[in-house]
Specification:
This protein has one helix at 8-28; strands spanning 55-71, 79-91, 94-102, 109-113, 127-131, 142-146. It is globular and about 50 Å long. The protein has one helix and six strands; from the N terminus they run αββββββ. It has 186 residues and is mainly beta. Residues 1-47 are annotated as: Disordered. It comes from Haladaptatus paucihalophilus DX253. InterPro entries: DUF1684.
């Protein structure tokens, strides 16, 4: 069974389990981004309801000569990434593209983005996706992008963190009500 062939029930259970683990980490772990004085009152992050419609297949466009790009951050110096590929996808009948970034030596694919929930229902500086394909995607490959796994960076919870901002090329003119919502418990 491929990652996209799991049943919706299995997918939903795994997603809810992942969210529960994250809430536990945020509420009790010493490396939680929640300020220590606020952890006792922390009762979990806010999430959009799981929605399989926001788990889509994207087509990979590889960049043979990845372009370096300095992503601005919420505080401090910019961070250097390579734009290694572009994902072409369809969300709610709307075509979209998302640039994918990697830092030197990084295996995961970093996809920072903004959408029409940004600053309203989700964190004001955008959200992130991290993709972990089982192998290096080739041009024309298909990869699953699950916006239900979109998360707010640590700087959404504490000003002690500096986080990359999604570049304008990843500002989607779409409403994606999936993943983490704004944390407004503080």
């Amino acid at each position: 069974m491929t990652e996209f062939e799991t049943t919706e029930t299995d997918w939903r259970e795994e997603l809810l389990s992942t969210r529960a683990e994250k809430d536990d980490f945020f509420g009790s772990h010493p490396q939680s981004p929640i300020p220590p004085g606020e952890r006792d009152d922390f009762d979990g992050l806010s999430y959009f309801d799981p929605d399989a419609d926001y788990r889509v297949t994207a087509t990979v466009e590889r960049h043979d000569d990845p372009e370096p790009l300095d992503l601005e951050t919420t505080a401090g110096p910019s961070q250097r990434y390579l734009r290694t590929m572009t994902l072409h996808l369809d969300v709610d009948g709307e075509e979209a593209s998302l640039a994918v970034y990697q830092q030197e030596g990084q295996d995961s694919l970093f996809v920072p983005f903004r959408d029409k929930t940004t600053g309203q229902q989700s964190y004001e500086n955008g959200r992130y996706l991290e993709l972990y394909p089982d192998r290096e995607p080739a041009d024309g490959d298909e990869i699953v992008v699950d916006f239900n796994l979109a998360y707010s960076p640590f700087c959404a919870y504490s000003e002690t963190f500096s986080c990359p901002l999604p570049p304008e090329e990843n500002w989607l003119d779409l409403l994606i009500p999936a993943g983490e919502k704004t944390w407004d418990d503080h």
